[in-house]
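Lecture notes, unit on protein representations.

Consider one protein chain, 459 amino acids long.
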Amino acid sequence: MSIEYLGLDSINGPLVVIEGVQDAAYDEIVEFSVHRTEQKLGRIIEVYEDKAIIQVFEDTTNMSLENTHTKLTGHSMELPLAPEMLGRTFDGIGRPIDGLGELNYVSKRDINGDPLNPVRREFPRNFIQTGLSAIDALTTLIRGQKLPIFSGNGLPHDKLAAQIVRQANLGKENNEDFGIVFAAMGVKHDVADFFRRTFEESGVIDHVTMFLNLADDPVVERLITPKVALTAAEFLAYDLGKHILVILTDMTSYCEALREVSSSKQEIPSRKGYPGYLYSDLASMYERAGIVDGKPGSVTQIPILTMPNDDITHPIPDLTGYITEGQIVLDRTLAGKSVYPPINILPSLSRLMKGGIGEKYTREDHQAVADQLFASYSKVNDARSLASVIGEDELSDTDKRYLSFGEKMENGFIGQELDENRTILETLNLAWDMLHILPREELNRIDTKLLDKYFDEDR
């Protein structure tokens, strides 16, 4: 039997305190009735004897200490789930905002997810094609992987996220089993409208589930949005057998919200003022990606985060790098050259790509071509540095070829149009076009048999 309490003891920003409660539990959902006219939701984040500290999901400015009714629901936050979630748009805590009415849900599930035995995880195999050469060839996204994008303020990560949503597919396989869950945290209204409009105009909205937490929405709601999105993804993947790609943008907004709420709770801060449990909190979400033995489907994650001051050693990208299986790094210098997407391939990597590329998955030459492109592009900076000292005319013929190779790589391979969708075979063929700029003797990362098959010295 639920008990309703009248009055609050204190209000501090998004946190309220109520004393004299019975049987309150951590993470329990609380319903508030403000002046009997407005309903709000909250979550218990701390319990001490008969005192409960509650995080309110909405604004607390109109809540009064005397006339607020509080009801403990007896359960943690749950998300209604239904197959019809694909094609729908929700707010940050899972309420429909697309004007299509409520879901006829088949079940409700705790947004914190179920504990997963690590030995039940299967090794990620098969790649997801994004249509972007720099990703598909060099930092291949594998089903069940978590591969973050490290960006910075002002860089086109929103455009990149939208393009991945439009173009991502399973390659040669049946794409009816493919879906995308897109969650945006703390985005401005014009950015949210850009995502909506892009997905609708491109015709992909039918296989996209969107969760939007706007910049003027309550900060606390941001802490719920990624968990709601991942709960929907797990249902679509493990219950309905779909391969789900989850895109979370911007995880920096999530971490800033976590720091703000932690400060309101007067917790002892750690690095840069973030709470000491930032690592475990991020891990609790990132580790919800994968393939589970005995269950159909898969969950793949692309978290996007903006590095404060482009600092890759900042706690958010630093901890994210420990948890995830690689990273895609956007570069401000490339963006200044009008290269889109401005992916710096040298610090970018995908630790799981070897398990999902090659003869069975993409093409036999994929790994060797990727290794050679990395090795050759790493010499471009040396050639540019030397040219800045002695002048380009004084360079050797080989160094001049490396300069030409770097220019062509950045503008013709890494760079592509916003609506350009390359297949993996087109990408690999284009990679060989890049390598033909260099002398054959410089291609020392590729087996002779592959060179004989794909490298035409007469070109």
